[in-house]
TrEMBL record:
Keywords: Endonuclease, Hydrolase, Nuclease, Nucleotidyltransferase, Transferase. InterPro entries: Peptidase_aspartic_dom_sf, Retrovirus_Pol_polyprotein, Znf_CCHC. It comes from the Eukaryota. This is Transposon Ty3-G Gag-Pol poly. PROSITE patterns: ZF_CCHC (PS50158). Residues 1-32, 79-100 are annotated as: Disordered. It comes from Paramuricea clavata (Red gorgonian). Residues 1-11 have a biased composition (Basic and acidic residues).
Length: 276
């Protein structure tokens, strides 16, 4: 009986070890499966979170970015955010005298760029008062900007308009100044009004100037035009036609628009058609 009891105890121990070994194998297999599943959770470049691979599983899928307006990513992951060294400017109020500039880059003379990424901004060299100046070409700007250091000796007319920087105090220009600038590429001259600023901003050419100079073109046939709303609805087709003719006249007779507006000496006789 004593030996039989020992054999029974031995069998129990072996049976327990066998079950423990089998359970360990199962636990190891389950751990391997868990480890394999956990590797599928990766940092997503569209939502910024960690989740399984698959666009349907991304919380940003089909969502609209609050920064650029495009779909399928959150604003914090947006790749089109403007660089930190560019101060954004917005229009203060449509009824005020504020002017809108899409972007004015503040760059001291001793610093050309602090970004490691290649610049996507467009610049054009123009001749002003016999000196070449690099202008930032800005399709979103409604004014042209030139620092006072380029306007020594020029007549600056006072202005009530202001430039309002994005998240910055309003920038008050010193005034306005009309200059004749020359495009060295085609040797054409243009009469351009600039907002003169004391700050050392990058010289800027706005939308109207660069369209008139032929630097950029608007292909109206590629989009549906919307009439402007002011005091009433305007016919954009006739307005654009008139603007085109006016710009052509200003371009052809640029020297007429140079300098200050004056008066003719003495009395002048003008003959007009009474039927008109």
């Amino acid at each position: 009986m004593g030996e039989q009891n020992k054999l029974d105890e031995l069998n129990k121990v072996q049976s327990t070890k066998s079950r423990t070994k089998g359970g360990g194998a199962r636990n190891k297999a389950n751990y391997g499966k868990f480890k394999q599943d956990s590797t599928q959770y990766k940092a997503c470049g569209y939502c910024g979170r960690k989740h399984k691979f698959g666009r349907e599983l991304c919380p940003a899928w089909s969502e609209t970015c609050n920064s650029c307006g495009k779909r399928n990513h959150f604003a914090k992951q947006c790749r089109q955010r403007r660089r930190d060294n560019t101060n954004q400017v917005k229009e203060a109020d449509s009824s005020s005298d504020s002017e809108y500039i899409d972007s004015v880059t503040v760059k001291p003379d001793k610093i050309s760029s602090i970004s490691q990424q290649p610049s996507k901004e467009v610049y054009a060299k123009m001749i002003v008062r016999g000196n070449p100046i690099k202008f930032h070409v800005d399709c979103g700007a409604t004014v042209n900007v030139l620092p006072m250091k380029y306007l020594a000796g020029e007549n600056i007319e006072p202005t009530d308009r202001t430039l309002q920087m994005w998240n910055k105090p309003e920038l008050k220009p010193k005034g306005t100044c009309r200059l004749t600038i020359r495009n060295p590429k085609n040797d054409k001259k243009y009469s351009v009004e600039f907002m003169a600023v004391q700050e050392n901003l990058t010289p800027l050419l706005g939308a109207k100037a660069i369209q008139r100079m032929g630097i950029v073109e608007t292909h109206n046939e590629n989009f549906e035009q919307v009439a402007q709303v002011n005091s009433g609805i305007k016919d954009t087709t006739s307005t654009q036609s008139t603007t085109t003719v006016m710009n052509r006249i200003i371009e052809e007779f640029a020297n007429v628009f140079e300098g200050e507006v004056g008066t003719l000496e003495g009395e002048q006789h003008l003959q007009v058609d009474p039927h008109l």
